[in-house]
Design brief:
Layout: E1 5-13, E2 19-26, E3 31-35, H1 42-57, H2 65-75, H3 82-103, H4 107-110, E4 119-127, H5 130-142, E5 147-152, E6 174-175, E7 181-184, H6 186-204, E8 209-213, H7 220-229, E9 237-239, H8 249-256, E10 261-263, H9 274-278, E11 284-285, H10 294-307, E12 311-312, H11 322-334, E13 341-342, H12 348-353, E14 359-361, E15 364-366, H13 379-383, E16 390-391, E17 394-397, E18 402-403
Helix pairs in contact: 1-3, 2-3, 3-10, 5-6, 7-8, 10-11
The structure holds 2-keto-3-deoxygluconate (KDG) and magnesium ion (MG).
Length: about 400
């Protein structure tokens, strides 16, 4: 008799921030976990899983990942979208976890084995002014990081993306009944931001990868101008210069600058980035297992990107749970066209709720050798941290009009 899924459970917990986790159990006693967290909209995915997907999973053969993926994707009729794709991702990750546990191997072995010794990650230096960012960069370099993203407050603007009061942990979503509001002026940003890169290179040199996230705020012309203006500071990538859904915008940017461009943390499927990749309009694709259909679909996107010389740079902010981070690491270590992995450390409570085998060493993460993803969820501990409603911020221009956050 073939094995079957006998239990599918959705666990929502808030050990510092909200996470949605799917835990599957099979008739032969294996368990698997998958991340379904969608920052600021967590309960939509929890409900989708709980009410529509879990009842379909019970009784299915856990080994048939491809069939289950297609059953949930094609079977919904309403394809794509963040809620659907996060829910499918949670199932996909949990099934890969089970398959690799059954094989008695860490997942990366089932993906073909290692293509490298470790996964280079980037840290997040940020601050209220340039001197503070420079000190933060120094701390990351001292800690062994070989890649650092820099973000700084812009004079005259409140609560700029990527800048945190807490020096070890950045969490933009805030608990409450309404999103926080921040302000934005592209003119002020463009006047100030090149001086950050200049100061970083002047004090710390060029011996490490330097990155920056513009978080979807510029027009194509503004982005092209910025990319051109900062070429001498040799950024490893400029991320999300313009809103990612406007694929033609990237042609304008590419016509004017050789600053590498990274895009895709808001993408959910291969269709969202097909043209960006095939027309070589980007250099790094930032999809991640939780938002883009799990290990199966992200692998497909990465393999497609490899045909066009586009490397991976998977999203790894704190809203990707340790389950998603582990899934990303197994892909990172096995994919030929890996570029760089984002790494934002989780809170201590999060790490306790999700015991894991991946570890940081000298600027690199290693997925570990435990069978499966190498992550579990401590359900008892998770129950001590109930869901707390939290929103990502919204962003307004100085005249009050809404802008992209
Ligand atoms: O939930 C949104 C965050 O994950 C996102 O704002 C973080 O842009 C981000 C990044 O590059 O980590
Ligand atoms: Mg980003």
């Amino acid at each position: 008799m073939t094995d079957s899924i006998i239990n599918a459970k959705v666990i929502v917990t808030c050990p510092g921030r909200n996470f949605v986790t799917l835990r599957l159990e099979t008739s032969d006693g294996l368990t698997g976990v998958g991340d379904g967290t969608l920052n600021g909209r967590e309960l939509a995915v929890a409900t989708y899983l709980q009410d529509y997907i879990c009842p379909l999973l019970v009784g299915r053969d856990p080994e048939q990942i491809n069939d289950t993926w297609q059953y949930l994707y094609r079977g919904a009729y309403w394809r794509r979208g963040p809620v659907t794709m996060c829910a499918i991702a949670a199932v996909d990750m949990a099934l890969w976890d089970i398959k690799a546990k059954r094989a008695g191997m860490p997942l990366y072995q089932l993906l073909g084995g290692r293509a490298r010794n470790g996964v280079m990650v980037y840290g997040h230096a940020n601050g209220r002014d340039i001197p503070q960012v420079l000190d933060e960069v120094a701390a990351y370099l001292d800690h062994g990081y070989q890649a650092v993203r820099v973000q700084v407050a812009i004079p005259g603007l409140d609560a700029v993306y990527g800048v945190s009061e807490n020096r070890t942990f950045y969490e933009p979503a805030t608990v409450g009944e309404r999103p926080q509001e921040s302000t934005w002026s592209t003119e002020a940003y463009l006047r100030f931001i090149p001086s950050l890169f200049e100061a970083v290179r002047e004090r710390h040199g060029f011996g490490f990868r330097l990155l920056h996230d513009a978080h979807h705020r510029l027009t194509p012309t503004e982005a092209a101008k910025l990319g051109k203006r900062i070429e001498d500071y040799d950024l490893f990538w400029l991320e999300d210069p313009t809103p990612a859904e406007d694929q033609d915008a990237f042609r304008i940017i590419k016509q004017h600058t050789v600053t590498p461009i990274a895009v895709g943390e808001v993408f959910n499927t291969i269709w969202d980035c097909q043209r960006l990749i095939s027309e070589r309009l980007i250099d790094f694709i930032r999809v991640t297992p939780v938002h883009a259909g799990g290990v199966s679909h992200v692998k497909r996107i990465a393999e497609y990107a490899d045909l066009y010389g586009v490397r991976t740079g998977f999203h790894g902010a704190t809203d990707m749970s340790p389950v998603c981070l582990a899934a990303a690491l197994h892909l990172d270590i096995s994919l030929p066209n890996f570029g760089l992995q984002e790494y934002m450390t989780h809170t201590e409570q999060t790490n306790e709720v999700f015991p894991h085998s991946y570890r940081f060493e000298n600027g690199f993460l290693h997925p570990g050798e435990e069978p499966g993803l190498g992550v579990d969820i401590d359900e008892k501990l998770a129950a001590r941290y109930p869901y707390r409603k939290a929103y990502l911020p919204v962003n307004r221009l100085l005249d009050g009009s809404m802008h992209n956050w």
